[in-house]
Amino acid sequence: NSDGTVVSADNLTCMRTSTGNYTISFTTPLANANYAIFIQPVGTSNDTNAHINAASIAPTGVSFWLGDADNGGGNDVSINRAFSVMVVSW
Fold first, then answer.
1. R_g (Cα) of the chain, nearest Å
2. Which residues pair with 53 in a beta bridge?
């Protein structure tokens, strides 16, 4: 959910740390930080240009930022938004 609460998950928790900033923590840490994380915003927005930037990736979890762009050269705006996430480790 946009507030960071988890609807359904296996081996992770989530917390919104500030507007548009989220931290996903793995209940059982992964062996290393060699994993892929796929984040897909869901829901409605007035903008179709969602931006996702990973701030940190570690065996214990990942922090990232969600934002919307205005298509007009303005700055991206942090936005609280529901999202789906999938982590693939090898």
1. 13
2. 65
Instruction: Classify residue 7 by its DSSP letter.
Output: S
- Measured CA to CA in angstroms, residue 81 lies from 4, 10, 34 at distances of 9, 20, 26
Residue 71 confidence (pLDDT) = 65
> Which pTM does this prediction carry?
0.86
- The model's pLDDT over 20-35, given as tens digits with 9 standing for 90+, comes to 999 999 999 999 999 9
**Angle, alpha carbons 58-76-23 (nearest 5°):** 25
Distance CA(13)–CA(44), nearest Å, equals 23
Q: Which of 14-28, 42-56, 76-90 has the highest mean pLDDT?
A: 14-28
Residue in 88, 43, 39 with CA at minimum distance from that of residue 66: 39
12-18/21-26 β-pairing: antiparallel
